[in-house]
Specification:
- With 452 residues, the chain is an alpha/beta fold.
- The protein folds into three domains: 62 residues; 115 residues, Alpha-Beta Complex (Aspartate Aminotransferase, domain 1), CATH 3.90.1150; 249 residues, Aspartate Aminotransferase, domain 2, CATH 3.40.640.10.
- Helices cover 42% and strands 16% of the residues.
- The strands form four sheets. A seven-stranded mixed beta sheet has the order 4-10-9-8-7-5-6, sandwiched between helices.
- Helix 5 runs antiparallel to helix 14, helix 7 packs across helix 8 and helix 15 crosses helix 16.
- The longest helix is centred in the N-terminal third of the chain and has 17 residues.
Length: 452
């Protein structure tokens, strides 16, 4: 049998063909040329991938062109059962937040302009009132993430001095970043006290000296220490801090604003509770349990917040108009907790009763079977994700697809829309806990399309 690679068309010949020339109608010539070269090169490297006939070549070039033009950042249907999936962008935004972003992104906005006076303003005023209203703090500041909030706070109140932290709170967060490494970048010196499993107020008291700049508490949001343990709470440390005129900085992490105990999610303090316990500065994420955009929220005593706002690092860590718009709209929903739980997708997914999740799964399964996809409903365990409520299990329902799990997973990841599930016991599971009702039909359509 002759090697088809000997009859490969030239790049110039393909560019002159009617089918490829038609692609130039809505694609820049350099992209089309690159696509043709890549298709020819790939065929030359492997005879098995040589397109068949003129139409085959045109289709191969069109497919390569489509891949090149596809956006790198794409929407994904999260069927993993992890509500706050860090790799998939954490919290989806509420409709009010999306609308707010669209409004300010479409044109100019009063980001740093006072409309009432006609003078220059500050971007830091836009979410301050809502944050203080919702948490009881004297002042608030928004930066680009919680790690930046921690660095800014430490650099402001403890640069060149010691920040006292329990050894049991020397945690590692996502991406391999460790709290003590982040602290080092702030200019504060870590002073470890206590043991991994037991730290007492007396340990902090013994470590306080002329070099002390702050007491630091880091909420262990992504794991729990159980057994023979002891922990000095913020409330217990507050009298000690006041006696030495030292601030307590509390890295709360998750950004919980309202309790979720009735949904079975307990153990995470709200920002208001952390401040009421005696923390002077509380730092938290905007895109975790709060359900907003990526941001670092700092709330607390006015004197410390004013100093942070004047710190040059605040400019390096500042957020843009779209983040502020999304955050402001999200925070506004919390004025009525029942509205927040209904309208903020993260809270709605976390608090949905399993009967509601099962109804979504049954609806999706019916669509799949009508499209020729064999599947089964299975009970599943979903999780909160992003380090929040680390031991909480959310009862859920998943669809288990018949057939090769890895083939299904690959086909769904590369489809449109992309779908990410998880493989368990040789089957691909699509967990409906993390699929809102509005996306059920899109999920079913993506699965049916991936079957082909």
């Amino acid at each position: 049998m002759s090697d088809l690679r000997r009859t490969l068309p030239s790049v110039s010949a393909l560019l002159e063909s009617a089918g490829v020339r038609a692609l130039l109608a809505d694609a820049p010539r350099p992209l089309v040329v690159d696509a043709v070269r890549e298709v020819v090169a790939r065929a030359r490297e492997s005879g098995a991938s040589v397109p068949k006939g003129p139409d085959g070549w045109v289709q191969a070039v069109a497919d390569r062109l489509a891949t090149t033009r596809r956006a790198s950042l794409r929407p994904v249907l999260n069927a993993t059962g992890v509500v706050l999936h860090t790799n998939l962008g954490r919290a989806p935004l509420a409709r009010a937040a999306i609308d707010a972003v669209a409004r300010v992104a479409a044109g100019y906005a009063n980001l740093e302009y006072e409309l009432s006076s006609g003078e220059r303003g500050s971007r830091y005023t836009h979410c301050t009132a809502l944050l203080t209203e919702l948490t009881g703090a004297q002042d608030a500041l928004v930066v680009n993430n919680c790690a930046a909030a921690l660095v800014l706070a430490l650099d402001t109140v403890a640069s060149g001095r010691e920040a006292i932290l329990s050894r049991g709170e020397l945690v590692e967060i996502g991406g391999g970043f460790r709290v003590h490494e982040i602290m080092a970048k702030s200019g504060a010196r870590l002073r470890e006290v206590g043991a991994t499993n037991r730290t007492h107020v007396g340990d902090y008291a013994a470590a306080i000296g002329p070099a002390t700049g702050a007491l630091l508490k880091v909420h262990r949001s992504n794991f729990q220490v159980v057994g023979f343990t002891a922990d000095a709470s913020v409330r217990e440390l507050a009298p000690l801090a006041r006696a030495h005129d030292l601030p307590i900085l509390h890295d709360l992490g998750s950004g919980l604003l309202i309790p979720l105990d009735d949904a079975g999610l307990t153990g995470e303090p709200t920002a208001g509770e952390a401040l009421a316990a005696g923390a002077n500065v509380v730092m938290m994420s905007g895109d975790k349990l709060l359900g907003g955009p990526q941001a670092g929220l700092i709330v607390g005593d006015a004197r410390y917040l004013a100093a942070m706002r004047a710190n040059p690092l605040a400019r390096a860590y500042r957020v843009d108009k779209m983040t502020l718009a999304a955050l402001e709209a999200t925070l506004a929903l919390y004025r009525e907790p029942s509205v927040a739980r209904r309208e903020i997708p993260t809270l709605a997914l976390l608090c949905a009763p399993v009967s509601e999740v099962r109804a979504r799964a049954e609806r999706c399964a019916a669509r799949l079977r009508a499209g020729g996809v064999a599947c089964a409903l299975v009970d599943d365990d979903a999780t909160v994700g992003a380090g929040a409520f680390p031991t909480a299990i959310l009862p859920s329902v998943a669809l288990a697809l018949d057939g090769d799990a890895e083939r299904w997973a690959a086909a769904l990841r590369t489809g449109e829309p992309a779908v990410v599930g998880r493989v368990r016991d040789g089957r691909l599971l699509l967990d409906l806990r993390t699929i809102p009702d509005a996306d059920v039909d899109a999920l079913a359509g993506a699965v049916v399309a991936a079957r082909a």
